[in-house]
Amino acid sequence: MEIEDLRIFVEVADAGGINSAARRLGLAKSIVSRRLLRLEEELGAELISRTTRGAVLTEAGMSFRDQAADICARIDAARDEMSPNGDIRGLLRIAGPASVGTYFASALAEFARRHPALSIHTRFSDQYVDLVAEGFDCAIRVGYMPDSNLVARKIGSLPMRLYASPEYIAENGAPEYPGDILKHAAITAGTNSWVFSDGTQSFTVNPQGRFMADNAYVLTEAAAAGLGIVAMGAMIADPYVQDGRLLPIMTRYTLPDVGIFVVRPQSQHTPRKVRVLIDLMVERYASVDL
C-alpha cells in the first residue's frame, strides 16, 4: 500500500469528488482514478461510491478516511523529525484575502525561492474559504479573529484610521468626535462597529451608510469618490493620501489595530512546511506596522 494512494483517497473524500481532488493535487483525473482503484483493490473494499454528481464515501470509506489521514500525518511528522534541516517537499496550498494579497506576494515568492522542491498553490479571494473542506494547509487572514476551530498565529498588525476625500469634507465637514459619525455617511464592509479611543476611554459607534463592499480597495475608492468616510488600513489608504484623494480625519482618536494571522486547521502534528512558512511571515511582518 503506497502512501500517495492514501493521500489521494483522503483528498477525494474531502473534496467530494475525483475531479475536485485532481484539481487540488494538480494531477490528471485518470491518475487519481487509477490510484484510488488500486487502493480499493488492495483493501478489498469499495471506499468511494461514484455518482454523476460526484463521489460519496461508502460505510467502509467513512471508517477508513480518518485512519488514512492519521497515517499520512504521522508519516509526514516522522519525515520532518528525521530531516529537520532537509528540503521541504510536496505541495503547500495557501488561501489569503484579495484585498491585501499583493502585500504578501514578495514573502510568498521568497518562500518559494528558499524551498525549490516545494510546490506552492495560492488562492487570493475575499470570500470565506473553508480550509478543511477545500483542502488548504493554511491561510493568511486579516481582521479580528473570532473563536473558531482553527489555530491562529499572529504575524503582524495593520493600523486603522478614518479617512474622507477633500470634496466630501468641503461639502459635509469632518467629524470631530465619535458621536459626530452618526451625522455622516459611512462606507463599511458590513454591520460592523467602530471603537474609538482618546487614550483614557473608549467610544463605540455603529456607522450608517448606503455603500458596502467586501473588498478594501472598493471601499477606499468609494471614499475617494466622495461617498462618505471610511475606516481603512494605512497600507491601503496611504497611496490615496499621498495623491491627495483622501485625508486622515478625527486624528485625535485611534481605532484598534487589525491583526494579521496565519491560520491552519487543528491537528496533532503541524506540517513542517506550514511551520517554516509561519516563521518566514513572522520574520517579515511581526515588527512592522503595515
Automatic annotation (TrEMBL):
Gene3D superfamilies linked to this entry: 3.40.190.290, Winged helix-like DNA-binding domain superfamily/Winged helix DNA-binding domain (1.10.10.10)
Keyword hit for DNA damage: no
Domain of life the protein comes from: Bacteria
Residue span(s) of domain HTH lysR-type: 1-58
Keyword Membrane recorded: no
Keywords: DNA-binding, Transcription, Transcription regulation
SUPFAM superfamilies to which the protein is assigned, alphabetical: Periplasmic binding protein-like II, Winged helix' DNA-binding domain
BP GO annotations: DNA-templated transcription
GO MF assignments: DNA-binding transcription factor activity; sequence-specific DNA binding
PROSITE patterns membership: HTH_LYSR
InterPro entries the record matches: LysR-type_TF_proteobact-type, LysR_HTH_N, LysR_subst-bd, WH-like_DNA-bd_sf, WH_DNA-bd_sf
Similarity remark: Belongs to the LysR transcriptional regulatory family.
Name by which UniProt lists this protein: LysR family transcriptional regulator
Source organism per UniProt: Luteibacter pinisoli
